[in-house]
Amino acid sequence: MSDIKQDPASDSETTIETSDQATPPPPPDGGMTAWLQVLGGHLLCFNSWGIINTFGAYETFYETDFMSGRTSSEISWIGTVQGFFLIVLGIIGGPIFDRGYFRHLLVTGTFLVVFGMMMTSLATTYWQVFLGQGICVGLGAGCLFLPSVAIVATYFSRRRAFATGVTVSGGSIGSVIYPIVFRRLQPSIGFPWATRVIGFIALATLTGAIAVLRTRLPPPKRARSMIDSAAFRSLPFVLFSIGSFFAFMGLYIPFFYVIFYAQSKAGMDESLAFYMLSLLNGSSVFGRIIPGLLADRFGSLQIMVLCTAVSALLSYAWIAIHDPAGLIVFCLLYGFFSGAVVSLPASVLARLPPDLGRVGTWMGMSFLVLSFGFLIGNPIAGAMIHVSEGEFSHGFVFAATMVTAAGVIFALVHFIQLRIARD
């Protein structure tokens, strides 16, 4: 079994020895093959998080047209189930990735995402949408997301946070493009064909990802279980996973409700209000890349603590925003800092296992924990928010409090790592 000594403060790593397989060469940290993996992972995120984050546009359409008789909480379950399966499937996808079945995950995920969107386009009831868009697309996205960040982690070391940020920024770009596609096409060609167009775009881009992605590390000779008990003995890993749970409970609430808030509180017309979601997602592109550059220099966890704290402050400030200019500034800032909170966990988790061969498994375990935060956060907020009455404050306070709790826990993890480094 590989044994790696780590310096948590500097995020450095050195392979010492291995007994069950030959020591792999160090990550190339660049070159054509490595950057092609970033491109392929970027396309996987484009069609996993990109489609999941598009649900804000679908929720607006469902509440005002297709499912006008359903409550905000009921409709939000579709989107949160999508996100839950995207993240929770890491507990299965991680070990599958580690055992070398990388391409099987990609093909399965591609089929499920495209099939789910096509079935959604045929749906006429809430439960049909729930099955197609919530469950099927969510399962497919789950097969795609973890491999996208896990493979990039094996190709980069010194520049890992930046490479991961570029990879995960695909989710932000997808969540800018897909809502605009839906918004522009739905009035002219209808809900079914607008949804099918998204499915066809996903099929084309995912085919490109499959063509360029290649694993670097050979699978271990001894297959590992889906759960690595060593992770539970790592206090930084346990606390970081708990902090991620709280972060994802509150982080995505603005993405689900910003369009409604823009219309009812900021006085925006329907067309301009819709683009607040794209503005949130667009600014998160930079939030997933620029903090990654800083993280490679100052440490992933340090930057994550800062960005989580700012996201929490912005969430509280959102309650007092009642004009278009203030909401635009909020979307730009919140999209940037929340994007960093989404992209940096992968680079933090990649440095916690004792060897790179367990990256997928440890990521999957941590993603399992935070997936439950994503699952329940928006429905809880939806029960507190009353769109028809223009009452948002209780849900926003809930979101801000959850992100604040996450920031405190991340800071504690950083303190523990510093103590370990000194010892």
How is the secondary structure organized here?
Layout: E1 3-7, E2 12-17, H1 32-46, H2 49-52, H3 55-66, H4 72-88, H5 90-98, H6 102-121, H7 126-155, H8 160-212, H9 235-250, H10 253-264, H11 270-298, H12 300-317, H13 324-349, H14 359-384, H15 393-422
Antiparallel strand pairs: 1-2
Short description:
The protein has 423 residues and is mainly α. It is built from 15 helices and 2 strands.
Number of strands: 2
Strand content: under 5%
Sketch the topology as an H/E string, one letter per element.
EEHHHHHHHHHHHHHHH
Return the CATH topology. Answer: Growth Hormone, Chain: A
Overall mean pLDDT score? Answer: 84
- Uncertain runs with pLDDT below 50, 5 residues or more? 1-21
Q: How far is the first residue's CA from the last residue's CA? A: 24 Å
Membrane topology: Multi-pass membrane protein
GO cellular component, one term: membrane
Subcellular location: Membrane
GO molecular function: transmembrane transporter activity
Characteristic terms for this protein:
423 residues; Growth Hormone, Chain: A; two-stranded antiparallel ribbon; transmembrane transporter activity
Question: What does this entry look like structurally?
Answer:
The structure is a single chain. The chain contains 15 helices and two strands. β1 and β2 form a beta hairpin. It has one domain: Growth Hormone, Chain: A (Up-down Bundle). Helix content is 75%, strand content 3%. It is mostly helical and 423 residues long. The longest helix has 53 residues.
